[in-house]
DNA sequence: CCCCTATCCTGAGGGC
DNA sequence: TGCCCTCAGGATAGGG
């Protein structure tokens, strides 16, 4: 569910809730998440103090005692929040982790179980980041060049390339459509057929779209919430995502929905010819 | 190698 | 009301 801006928002709000507090005794459900979680390893983090929560792309990292300790991927429906221990426990709650002396706890709720919570040391964190592309917010000139080269090398369709986290991180199904609309690029064009100047516009559009989403604390169209349980405000700013049949905000042509790699893409046939 | 499909799951919503 | 279908913010094994 969450894309880069949502995960960054979760990290920021969780940091607020968790940093400086000591983790208590972990509880977990018997359900398996996307992969089997080594809970005994995760339990080694009990009785340590959280000192940071960060995000790289759609991956979230929690560190204790100046060392990475936990990584989380929220998949489609994962929610990582801190609430009062007295808040009723939702079905599909897979993890409860008290923050000592606060009356509050970290909870992981994930109906579809496509997400993952796992222990994670320094090396593992490095390995995860190494197989991901650059963060569009932190890109150097060299990153720009190599990202564009990687995209031009691919014969896949540009929409699919944008979703590929090994090329660039943080773009998911909502913001891929939104960025292509802003850059006026047809989602079905092959990566190899797009010019360098068009790519420069596209990367700029990705940054604009993600920056706006981050400013609005993410897009909630169904169940996304931040680390404090708050919804995002970015839904009202979307121009094409899930707007099939509605008139394009630029030219009034109805927005079209197509399927690419099994996922919906929304675009304006006129503006993105 | 690269690319595509199916798959992991539950729940919401529409048509009949 | 219920049944069946499609769809949903993601990632990845494995087949062609």
Describe what is shown at a glance.
The chain has 273 residues and is an alpha+beta fold.
Please characterize this protein's 3D structure:
It contains seven helices and ten strands. With about 270 residues, the protein is an alpha+beta fold. It has two domains: about 5-130, MutM-like, N-terminal (N-terminal domain of MutM-like DNA repair proteins), CATH 3.20.190; about 135-265, Helicase, Ruva Protein, domain 3 (Orthogonal Bundle), CATH 1.10.8. A hairpin with a 2-residue loop joins β2 (about 50-55) and β3. The relative contact order is 0.15. The structure holds a DNA duplex (16 and 16 nucleotides).
The level 1 CATH classification of the largest domain is Mainly Alpha
Main sheet strand line-up:
1-6-7-5
| CATH fold-level topology of the largest domain | Helicase, Ruva Protein, domain 3
Supply the number of helical segments: 7
What's the average pLDDT?
97
Proportion of beta-strand residues:
15-25%
CATH architecture of the largest domain: Orthogonal Bundle
SSE string: HEHEEEEEEEHHHHHEE
Our measurement of the CA-to-CA distance between the termini, rounded to an integer number of angstroms, reads 29 Å
Major sheet summary line: 4 strands, antiparallel
Fraction of residues in helices? 25-40%
Helix-strand category: alpha+beta
Gross geometry: globular
Rg is 20 Å
- Please mark out the parts with pLDDT under 50 across 5 or more consecutive residues, or reply none: none
Taken together, the total number of domains comes to: 2
The strand count comes to 10
């Amino acid at each position: 569910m969450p894309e880069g801006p949502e995960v960054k928002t979760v990290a920021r709000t969780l940091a607020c809730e968790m940093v400086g507090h000591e983790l208590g005794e972990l509880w977990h459900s018997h359900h398996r998440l996307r992969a089997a979680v080594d809970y005994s390893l995760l339990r080694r983090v009990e009785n340590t103090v959280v000192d940071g929560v960060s995000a790289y792309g759609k991956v979230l990292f929690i560190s204790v005692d100046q060392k990475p300790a936990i990584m989380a991927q929220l998949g489609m429906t994962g929610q990582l929040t801190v609430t009062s221990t007295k808040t009723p426990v939702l079905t599909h709650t897979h993890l409860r982790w008290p923050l000592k002396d606060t009356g509050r706890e970290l909870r992981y709720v994930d109906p579809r179980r496509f997400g993952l919570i796992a222990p994670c040391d320094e090396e593992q964190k490095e390995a995860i980041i190494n197989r991901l592309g650059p963060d569009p917010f932190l890109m150097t000139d060299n990153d720009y060049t190599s990202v564009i080269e990687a995209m031009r090398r691919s014969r896949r369709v540009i929409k699919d390339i944008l979703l590929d986290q090994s090329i660039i991180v943080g773009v998911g199904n909502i913001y891929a459509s939104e960025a292509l609309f802003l850059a006026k690029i047809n989602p079905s064009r092959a990566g190899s057929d797009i010019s360098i100047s068009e790519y420069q516009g596209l990367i700029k559009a990705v940054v604009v779209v993600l920056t706006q989403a981050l400013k609005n604390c993410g897009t909630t169209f169904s169940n996304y919430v931040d680390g404090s349980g708050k919804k995002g405000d970015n839904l009202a700013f979307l121009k094409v995502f899930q707007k099939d049949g509605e008139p394009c905000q630029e030219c009034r042509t109805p927005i079209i929905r197509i399927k690419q790699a099994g996922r919906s893409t929304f675009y304006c046939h006129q503006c993105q010819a």
